Amino acid sequence: MESSEHNSRQRKPKRKEILERKKSLNQLIEVASIEKDCLAYFPTFCQFNRNGISVYLESGSGDKLSLSLKRDLQKLVKVNMERHYGSEWVIEEKVKRREMIALEARYIFVYEAASNSSENKRVLDEGNQALVGFVHYRFTLEEELPVLYVYEIQLESHVQGKGLGKFLMQLIELIAHKSCMSAVVLTVQKANADAMDFYTNKLRYNISSISPSRMGINKNYEILCKAFDNEAKTILEEIEPVR
Q1: CB-CB contact of 221 with 85 (8 Å)
Q2: Would you say 133 and 123 are in contact if contact means Cβ atoms under 8 Å apart?
Q3: Parallel, antiparallel, or unpaired for β 145-155 and 183-189?
């Protein structure tokens, strides 16, 4: 009896520690998610003027999308992704449309700058705005770790291959660091060979331990990640300890 009571007393601190960690993580996600303008902390990332393109960036959220903006986002996703999903696109498109307007959805919109705009001007008249890309991301938990999950990064064809995608992912990683996230996580279709090469070879993302292929499951996508601390590397990338 005494031994049982002793063991019970030993378990209680462990359970309390788990609950406190969970509460702390949920608070961390909540604080990160309520940030209205992530770009305010990174002014040098508000514009991209290189390789013949000039664009500016704005922050946004899924519950604040105008009807015209929703249509632009949906059109861009369809043009870029339908071929990679094949017959699954009919169902997947409906899923993506629901995800786009979720309360927790956070955005970076990429607009083409008008030729008569000043170099430092971020906001143009609505009629002059031309959406050429966007990033949809969220703050969430994966394997009980706080992560920034990139749901979509889409660019118009005429601004691809000019360094803009890398620029946006650098910004995403800065946002993740500032928000105390342990990693950036994203999903890529296996059929999208260019995207797989971009993330794994150019940006050094790894196929995550939570990706279907790492668990012996055959799916048409991979989950990639870039971890920022040892715990995340061990859990999300399955890094073998140094002996």
Answers
A1: no
A2: no
A3: parallel
Alpha-carbon gap, residue 47 to 241, rounded angstroms:
41
3-state secondary structure of 129: coil
Alpha carbon of residue 107 to chain centroid: 9
Cα 218 vs. chain centroid, distance in angstroms?
A: 23
Per-residue pLDDT of 168-182, as tens digits, reads 999 999 999 999 999
State mean pLDDT over 218-229: 97
Asked if residue 228 lies in contact with residue 176, where contact means CB atoms within 8 angstroms, the answer is: yes
Tokens of 166: 């890398």
- Angle formed by the axes of helices 67-85 and 89-100, nearest 10°: 150
Residue 195, SS3? helix
Greatest Cα pair distance, the chain, in angstroms, is: 82
Total residue length of the chain = 243
H or E element: which one contains 11? helix 2-33
Rounded distance, CA 210 to CA 143, Å?
8
The C-alpha atoms of residue 221 and residue 85 are separated, in whole angstroms, by: 10
- H or E element at residue 6: helix 2-33
Q: Give 206's strand partners.
A: 225
pLDDT tens-digit map of 45-100? 999 999 999 999 999 999 999 999 999 999 999 999 999 999 999 999 999 999 99
Instruction: Round to whole Å and give the CA distance between 1 and 141.
Output: 40
Please, which residues bridge with residue 154 across strands?
A: 134
CA dihedral 204, 208, 211, 217 (to 10 degrees): 100
